[in-house]
Amino acid sequence: MIPPKPPSRPDRVSLWRYMQLFRQDILSAQPARLYRAWMAEFRTPFFRSYLMNQPELVKTVLKDRPDDFPKSDRVGEGLRPLLGNSVFLTNGEVWKRQRRIIDPAFEGGRLRETFPAMWDASEAAAARLPEGLVEIEEQTSHAAADVIFRTLFSIPIEDALASAVFHEFRTYQRSQPILNLAAFVPLPRWMPRLFRRETRASAARIRGLIGQLVDRRAEDIAAGAAPDDLATKIMTTRDPVTGATFTPEEMVDQVAIFFLAGHETSASALAWALYLMALYPEWQEKVAAEAQALVACDFAVMSKLPVTRDVFRETLRLYPPVPMMVREATCPERFRDRDVRRGSQLVLSPWHLHRHARLWDRPDDFDPGRWQTENGRRCGRDAYIPFSAGARVCTGAGFAMVEGPLILARLLRDVVVSPVEGRVPVPVAHLTVRARDGIWLNLAKR
Ligand code: HEM
């Protein structure tokens, strides 16, 4: 038995059919050969794109020469009304300055300071869990959003402003279903700019609410009464080069991306992890046994969850929340004996790389034990990029690798999850990898 994998399309389809498939879901719009190919070319009337699966090529683009392969503008088009000039969308000097201010807040030692807020969120998530038939993505979204509010602003999701932001984000996501696809779909450049009115209005409301959080915090900082959380750390950090801090407007941009990048992704990973635990009860029992160590809020407890961590890593391999990323070639290149023109779109696909048939042993199997094998270790270094890699690596990677295993273990300490007959989730790529009709599980108290 292998865990759910979307069907691939036939090798050859018309451009029109490809566009239709794409609109439905980018994962099932791709041919099966991408799980074996080192590089593939897509020609469209408007531009060319290349999918890169060869570890050396991925390394060139992400790690060795990131400045030559900036983020493609096309990716940002669907997100700009919400994210403004956030670190997720910028390039060049602006991006470098933003990372200089943000990165220190997420450094290893600081994670320890953030841990109590995560712990409280994990307790709250466990207390909220219902019994019986449950759609688990809803639960994990709630939990991951709570983690962000608690770590960033020291408020729980029940706070009136926090809960307003959370609900407004849901409206936004519903009104903006083809996010991110502009980079691959052969549409003229102006098309994705025609945002629906509702999407724009919703983005404006979210930014207004976040603005209130930021203003409130700026006042607390000025009064010397601010809690020492991520928002305070970021808002009081001066750029070591220029000495400037973020303006309130820039901070709103960053908070919007922390919320979006930090909650959608973790929610997706946690939901798939719980589904996999239902499919593989022997692993679920191992996680539940480790979870007995979670008795008091102490960062050291994380070192007692090695199996849970491997389970979470394996989940990120099979269901990478960000399935594909896009970069743009700023100069002509020659890759694998092919001329890649300037302006070409380069697609890096954790989804395909993580299941590559020429790299991984039993690529579609769920086996957390693989991380202790020679093949697993090698592929972990060369062919595993759930958080991307290089200079633009996810700022929240370390954060997510604490949050994910902690919440997974905490929930399984209290409940046993089992699959629901007839409800096999079908992975589809929305903003992150989700299940077409949600992920349904049976929950029973342990
Ligand atoms: C399992 C959880 C997560 C996954 C799988 C994930 C994955 C990723 C990936 C793949 C990227 C690169 C996207 C690209 O280059 O196109 C990224 C960027 C980013 N992520 Fe995460 N992320 C996670 C959690 C978080 C959290 C918790 C935060 C913050 C609290 C966060 C903040 C960011 C930011 C700010 C960026 C932009 C970095 C830049 O472009 O310089 N992420 N994430």
Written account of the structure:
The structure is a single chain. The chain has 446 residues and is α+β, with helices and mostly antiparallel strands. It is built from 16 helices and eleven strands. Strands 1-2-7-4 form a four-stranded mixed β-sheet. It is globular. Protoporphyrin IX containing FE binds at residues 87-88, 99, 257-258, 261-262, 265-266, 269, 321-322, 325, 386-388, 392, 394-396, 399-400, 404.
What about the largest sheet?
Answer: 4 strands, mixed
**Average pLDDT score:** 90
Shape: globular
Poorly predicted runs of 5 or more residues:
186-192
Number of strands: 11
Task: Please indicate the percent range of residues in DSSP E strands (runs of 2 or more).
Answer: 5-15%
Oligomer: single chain
Q: List the bound ligands.
A: protoporphyrin IX containing FE
Q: Number of helical runs?
A: 16
Structural class: alpha+beta
Listing every helix as H and every strand as E from the N terminus to the C terminus, the arrangement reads HEEHHHHHEHHHHHHHEEEEHHHEEEE
Strand order in the largest sheet: 1-2-7-4
Helix content: 40-55%
